[in-house]
Amino acid sequence: MLHDVVVVGAGPVGSTLALSLAAGDVDVIVVDARPAGRIARSDRSLALSHGARLILERVGVWDGLSLAAGAVTPIARIDISQAGGFGQTQLAAQEHGLAALGYVVSYRALQAALDAALARSSVAMRHAATVTAVRGGTAHAAVEIADPALTGFVEASETIRAPLFARLAAVADGTGDAMAFVARQRHDYGQVALVAKLFVAAPHDGTAYERFTPDGPMALLPEHDGYGLVWTATPARAQQLLAFSDDEFLLELARHFGARSGRFTRVADRRTFPLVMEYAREPARARCVALGNAAQTLHPVAGQGFNLGLRDAWELAQIVLDSPREQIGADEMLARYSRSRRTDRMAGIAFTHGLVRLFGNDLPLVRWPRGLALTLLDSVPAAKRAFTHAMLFGIR
Ligand SMILES: Cc1cc2nc3c(=O)[nH]c(=O)nc-3n(C[C@H](O)[C@H](O)[C@H](O)COP(=O)(O)OP(=O)(O)OC[C@H]3O[C@@H](n4cnc5c(N)ncnc54)[C@H](O)[C@@H]3O)c2cc1C
Questions:
Q1: C-beta of residue 360 within 8 angstroms of C-beta of residue 213
Q2: What's the longest Cα–Cα distance across the chain?
Q3: What separation in Å is there between the alpha carbon of 297 and the centre of ligand 1?
Q4: 12 CB under 6 A from ligand 1?
Q5: pLDDT for the residue 82
Q6: How far apart are CA 133 and CA 149, in angstroms?
Q7: In what order do the strands lie in the sheet with 296-297?
Q8: Distance from the CA of 374 to the center of ligand 1, in angstroms?
Q9: How far is CA 277 from the centre of its chain?
């Protein structure tokens, strides 16, 4: 059987693509390694732009998500500063006539809402099915699957491959591993992000803090009854921070962050992950396309990666829905998709990488220009508007 689209990975990006496609007359099947109803146990705080909210509204998950207790926290302002240097700026939703600059969303809550929406939709799902490779071709793409559900009648160690064929394979597996034939640029920042949940003595007022410190950028995202913390540091420093007792960790955090956000009372779920930038210059080829983190994995400093991924999904769906069936996955359609995403993707990648280069180290030579950048941003309304627009909607 030849499907129109096979979506590899039902994470936030793959699910958004599948739900967007469900609006049209397209035969879609989604394959995910997760068993039905299983969501990663550890949570993450995702910073969602206003543009990303609009996409989630269109696929019908936003209203339910925003009603779920603690799942969505509006960001009223963003306070940007650097430790031990001049320069500070605040971006406020009110200044731009918006109810919020963005939202902090729990990954688990978002995934649960998307899973439920997919279960209600007409989209076919294959759970607990790990894709081992996606192969491109001229007539169709083949998606090879190791399906544990089929191994009941063979040796447990044996892999049964039941390929799926489609006019288009859309790979949103979070890494791009399933689409190994696409060339990727990679830059290792030599740093890791330590993430944790923080609780505070007094309720937050919706302010997100971005602070540039000698360790690297730190962010506090207002989330439900506390903050989501992202603290970038060298791997050795992160190990030290992980080894601290909770009280020692909170003391060190207060020393680094100052008293801007009030007193921290408790920390939970400290974890680290490596910081790399990895992206495919050309994400589409031979009836296959990578999107979301599979197409670009970015440093979390500017909160761009996840939002770019949702825009990948939305744009791809619009182009598929706009194409006659026989054109789905054809070279012209893929070229149209690549063209439509190039500026937004490349600008998002350059913006994030530039921010890390400017703010990600503590050389005195850099401290001065970044103080200037923050001061200029604060004193030139047009620069501030452009920066805020980039954070809200991406760069086009
Ligand atoms: C450890 C970690 C922490 C992060 N923390 C933050 C944070 O604090 N803030 C932030 O903004 N961003 C964070 N990010 C980035 C953010 O999680 C991503 O931008 C977002 O998850 C991208 O969504 P996605 O749908 O592209 O991929 P994912 O969310 O990774 O989803 C991929 C999906 O594909 C499935 N899958 C994977 N491989 C296969 C396969 N071979 N076969 C079938 N299915 C497969 C998975 O089960 C999953 O459902 C973090 C990323 C990581 C890895």
A1: no
A2: 70
A3: 9
A4: yes
A5: 76
A6: 18
A7: 88-92, 77-82, 207-213, 216-223, 226-233, 185-200, 264-279, 296-297
A8: 31
A9: 13
Give CA 278 to chain center in angstroms.
13
> Taking the CA atoms of the chain, what radius of gyration do you get in angstroms?
22
Q: For residues 244 and 313, is the Cβ–Cβ distance under 8 A?
A: no
Residue 160: DSSP 8-state: P
As a whole number of angstroms, the distance between CA 301 and CA 375 comes to: 19
- Closest by CA to 346, choosing from 277, 258, 251, 270, is 277
- Specify which residues 223 forms β-bridges with: 226
pLDDT attached to residue 153:
46
Which residue minimizes the CA distance to atom 38 of ligand 1? 173
Q: What angle do CA 75, 279, 347 make, to 5 degrees?
A: 55
Cα–Cα separations (whole angstroms), residue 6 to 1, 10, 56, 182: 12, 11, 21, 18
Q: What is the mean pLDDT of each run of 10 residues along the chain (396 residues)?
A: 97 98 96 92 86 95 89 90 71 83 92 96 94 95 79 46 91 95 92 93 88 83 92 94 96 83 88 94 96 95 89 98 97 97 93 76 55 58 64 56
Q: Are 96 and 77 in contact (CB under 8 A)?
A: no
What pLDDT shows up at residue 143? Answer: 96
Neighbours of 83 (CB within 10 A): 16
Looking at residue 158, what is its pLDDT? 42
Per-residue buried b or exposed e for 332-342, using 16+ beta carbons within 10 Å of the residue's own CB: ebbebbbebbe
Distance CA 291, CA 277 (A): 15
Place of tokens 């530039």: 354
305 within ligand 1 shell (Cβ under 6 A): yes
DSSP letter for 33, please: S
CB-ligand 1 contact for 296 (6 Å cutoff): no
Q: State both tokens at 318.
A: 């619009």
Please state the pTM of the whole predicted model: 0.90
DSSP structural state of residue 149 = G
Give 3-state DSSP helix, strand, coil % of the chain, rounded to 5: 40, 30, 30
From the CB of 35, is ligand 1 less than 6 Å away? no
